[in-house]
Write a structure and sequence with these properties.
It contains 6 helices and no strands. With 144 residues, it is mainly alpha-helical.
Length: 144
Amino acid sequence: FEGVEEALARIGGKAYAISALSQATAAAVDRGDVPSVPSAIAKYHCTTMGREVVSDMMDVIGGKGIILGPRNFAGRAWQAAPIGVTVEGANIMTRSLLIFGQGAILCHPWVMKEMQAAQDPDTRRGLEEFDQSLFGHIRFGISN
């Protein structure tokens, strides 16, 4: 029965991780942060782990989980598992666009400054700040 124990251990560990991750993200919102990248990372990992938990659950309970009926506690979870990874953007898009795209913009020393300067309503100041940021970006690229 080690196989069942192994699956139950994964279910318990992932349930704990999902709970901790959602609480950490909610704490950032409570602090007044707008954690777009951390919440995208949380969504990606929580939905992926949730899907794996449902898969392990079905492995443990076997055929009982497939036949829908009043005593089946797992069938609807199995049917709903793909919804979490496709609603509000598929996990592939979340990983590609939100996590890497926004993460690269926010962590880069010059890209955000360039974008803010380009949107400055004071065009003269925006142009000066953009030039400084652009040349800083070029120096940064050459120095790497």
